[in-house]
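Technical annex, item 7. During the second reporting period the consortium partners agreed on a shared format for inverse folding records so that results from different sites could be compared directly. Each record opens with the tokenized structure and is followed by the designed sequence. A conforming record, contributed by the partner at site C, is shown below for reference.
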């Protein structure tokens, strides 16, 4: 190694010092140049928590459900078929090229273990011993609320945090547990891809709802379909404790929920986790994915004959921050297949107006997926409200919704 013993010149040292002072000034304003936003360190910490933190839930997924035994026997083909995703950015380039060339055996469970060992399976965190035996398994937020861009192959690509993994079949995965009874497995297997029933842990009923996006939440106070909690921290604690079965506490007197699972591994992580989630903007529609001229006409319908803007108000296109709506006033009631009303199982017994963002990216629609397409959404509203829109108006309105 060659060392320049003379060091930088005097003038260069002055420039370096000036740059350092400028950098300190930026850091004092928040780390990323924004005086009012979270620091870059907080966002990086939140991203790490979102992607990799289990809150100690291995005590449930490993010790109770024994899912570490299950993943040991599942080949990647099956894992990908139930919607699990592989983070290509954690894999060596040679491995990625081998996958694309068909030189990696995706039918061998040992490949799954290797992917887990590399930390490449989105939303799962495993410990693998020197004999390549999985000794523990936990879940993270990213399991349901991230997907990948499929740039390498179907289910293998770069992470898309905040996107709902609507190909994930949580029920089918849970049903693989050797600790469950046959009737329990039947319930979990009935959910289907993209659906999860968080209330089954408390009321014993079965009525799964769609996994929602975790992007575009900034400025939205009621972030779930029923607006139960006041902020994201409420829901992060709820999911972390009662669904992931992490270590912490969650109390909701309105539903009779009081879970105490110490020691608390969640509370200290909530601020950074929320900061990262609020930084996830809704993706914009890609070029050519909607008809701009028709969308412009559709906006007129949205704000006029369609009466959509009576509830989908403001820049967020929702009135959720100011009011909730009775079940009789929403088109997603009654629930399909005779399931109990989702509102009846909530703390508010009401529904919020859904913020409209990136709609074309996450069909089906409404909390229960009752509308498979945006055309079906418009048809449901027209029938419920008796709007009598023309076919052209409905087509234009769909294009506007695709543009959001």
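Designed sequence (site C submission):
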């Amino acid at each position: 190694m060659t060392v320049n013993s003379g060091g930088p010149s005097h003038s260069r040292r002055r420039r370096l010092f000036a740059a350092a002072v400028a950098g300190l000034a930026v850091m004092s304003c928040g780390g990323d140049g924004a005086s009012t936003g979270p620091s870059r360190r907080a966002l990086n910490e939140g991203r790490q928590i979102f992607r990799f933190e289990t809150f100690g839930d291995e005590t449930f997924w490993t010790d109770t459900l024994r899912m570490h035994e299950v993943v040991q026997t599942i080949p990647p083909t099956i894992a990908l078929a139930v919607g699990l995703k592989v983070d290509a950015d954690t894999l060596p380039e040679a491995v990625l090229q081998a996958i694309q060339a068909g030189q990696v055996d995706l039918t061998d469970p040992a490949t799954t273990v290797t992917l887990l060992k590399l930390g490449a399976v989105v939303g799962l965190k495993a410990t693998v011993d020197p004999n390549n035996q999985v000794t523990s398994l936990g879940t993270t937020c990213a399991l349901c609320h991230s997907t990948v861009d499929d740039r390498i192959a179907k289910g293998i690509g770069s992470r898309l945090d905040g996107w709902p993994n609507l190909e994930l079949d949580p029920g089918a995965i849970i049903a693989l547990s050797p600790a469950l009874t046959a009737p329990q497995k039947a319930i979990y297997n009935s959910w289907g891809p993209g659906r999860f029933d968080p209330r089954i842990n408390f009321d014993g009923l079965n009525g799964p709802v769609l996994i929602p996006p975790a992007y575009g939440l900034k400025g939205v106070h009621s972030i779930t379909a029923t607006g139960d909690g006041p902020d994201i921290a409420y829901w992060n604690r709820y999911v972390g404790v009662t669904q992931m079965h992490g270590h912490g506490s969650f109390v909701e007197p309105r539903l009779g929920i009081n879970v105490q699972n110490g020691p608390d591994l969640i509370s200290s992580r909530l601020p950074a986790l929320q900061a990262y989630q609020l930084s996830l903007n809704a993706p914009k529609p890609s070029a050519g994915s909607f008809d701009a001229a028709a969308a412009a006409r559709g906006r007129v319908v949205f704000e006029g004959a369609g009466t959509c803007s009576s509830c989908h108000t403001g820049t967020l296109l929702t009135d959720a921050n100011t009011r909730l709506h009775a079940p009789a006033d929403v088109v997603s009631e009654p629930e399909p297949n005779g399931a109990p009303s989702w509102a009846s199982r909530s703390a508010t017994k009401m529904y919020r107006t859904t913020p409209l963002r990136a709609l074309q990216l996450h069909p089906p629609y409404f909390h229960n997926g009752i509308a498979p397409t945006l055309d079906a959404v418009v048809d449901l509203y027209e029938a419920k409200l008796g709007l009598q829109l023309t076919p052209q108006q409905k087509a234009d309105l769909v294009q506007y919704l695709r543009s959001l």
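The chain has two domains: 47-278, 292-403. Confidence is low (pLDDT under 50) at residues 1-35. All partners now use this format for quarterly exchanges.
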